[in-house]
Amino acid sequence: MGGIAQVRQAFALLAFCTLFANTALSHAQAAPPAPTARFVVVLDAAHGGDDLGAHLSSGQQEKAVTLALSIRLRSVLSARGIQVVTTRESDQSIDRNARAETANRANAQACLSLHVTESGSGVHLFASSLAPTPAIHFAAWKTAQSAWVTRSLALAGALNSALGQAGTTVTLGRTPLPAIESMTCPAVAVEIAPQRSADHKITAEPDDPAYQAQIATALGAALLEWKSEAHQP
Amino acid sequence: MIPRYQIILFSVLVAASLIMGGLLWQLRERAHQRLVAGEDSAPTKAPAVAPNEQATLLVADDDDNSLRSQIHSLPLPADPGARARAVLGKLLDLYAAPDSAHAVPGGANSVAQVFLLPVPGTPDSQQPDALLAVVNLSSAFVASHPSGIETETLTVLSICGTLHANLPHVTQVRFLVDGKSRPTLADHADLTRTYLTADAETANQ
Questions:
Q1: Residue A174: its chain B contacts at CB < 8 A?
Q2: With contacts defined as CB-CB under 8 Å, which chain B residues touch A171?
Q3: Smallest Cβ distance to B151: which of A47, A120, A172?
């Protein structure tokens, strides 16, 4: 009797295994195609609240101009079907860690820290000066950007190309910038300086709406190109 | 009749008084001469002026975000700390000039001191005598510095590069403002970190 029971148990186990294997196989064959990866851009309007930033010759403060630029760029990107996350929507003081937390939670494919200045000309693009490192699960907060530096440099190159095509003077650089060094995304600081003629006279201030629109359009085109590259197999 | 011994005693006392009077007169004359000599405000010895030497300055240019190497001749003291302050003073004088491509007011007085210290931590076998330069800037310089990532980064890197070009043992640079730590130069460039002079060399290439 005991032998028959053992045979029955063996058959039951075999049947269960066969059923499980068939179910797994059918699930694998009928699995829906992977959803298209979402493309998110984080816009970080620098300064805000008590942190005024630079004072422009027009009397404007950097915090107000970066917020205006962020809103303008958000519209340009949204119109192109790009999902945008902003670190601030009003004149409020936000800690640099909170900005990085927002960017990191968004799992973004591009993070732009927006600044304006009165010195220099055109647009200054800065990537972190951290040395590139391989990606690890638990990165140090202050140097989290190091695993993304290579992608950040590529993003800076894409922005440089689009701005150059739009006729904007661009300077590229790398700097230790705390605002982006905790971000786990391709991150670039975009600093808008006055537009100058060949004899260094200012032809457009950073808070000039037409100048901002020109730059926002070029950045939008660059991010659209960046999106298409990101979605290539 | 005056006794003989009293006449002798009187004579000795008169002679001693005359001698002492003469000595006092001489001492007074000497003291007067010393006093007159002390009141003379004219310099008696020329101040020691350091000889002119060639110094390499990494000068920032806002137009193309670059650092350009320039050779200048200026008096350089023998003491390394004073030497570092002299070259940085010259660099900041160039920035304060009206036609500067990296305009920053302040000039030479913006650098209060430069302290040269051994690099903390484990000794580097490649360069065991490596130095950390602590540059103490004035708050007036920081308050008047233009705000912006590019302009602030160029100021920091040009200071680091200039120090290394003239004092090759300086491999790291830190900043203080009026002797205290400060988060940023003008809201952007981080002044809490230690900068490597190699960063300035990379920017200069």
A1: 202-203
A2: 64-65, 150
A3: A120
Range 89-128 of B in CB contact (< 8 A) with A: 102-103
Nearest-neighbour CA in chain B from A37: distance (Å): 33
What is the extent of the structural domain holding B87? Answer: 52-204
- Comparing A194 with B64, which gets the higher pLDDT? A194
Which sequence spans correspond to the domains of chain A? Answer: 1-31, 40-230
CA distance B189 to chain A (A): 7
The question of ipTM being above 0.85 is answered as no
What's the CA gap between B56 and B72, in Å, rounded? Answer: 6
Q: B122-151 pLDDT, tens per residue?
A: 555 567 789 999 999 999 999 999 999 999
Cβ contacts below 8 Å, chain A against chain B, sum to 76
Same domain, B129 and B151: yes
In DSSP terms, B180 is beta-bridged to B177
Residue with token string 């950097």:
A62
User: Looking at domain A40-230, what is its CATH homologous superfamily?
Assistant: Zn-dependent exopeptidases (3.40.630.40)
Give the Cα separation of A43 and A7 in Å (integer).
Answer: 67
CA distance readout (Å), B155 to A46, B160, B163, B178, B191: 21, 9, 12, 17, 12
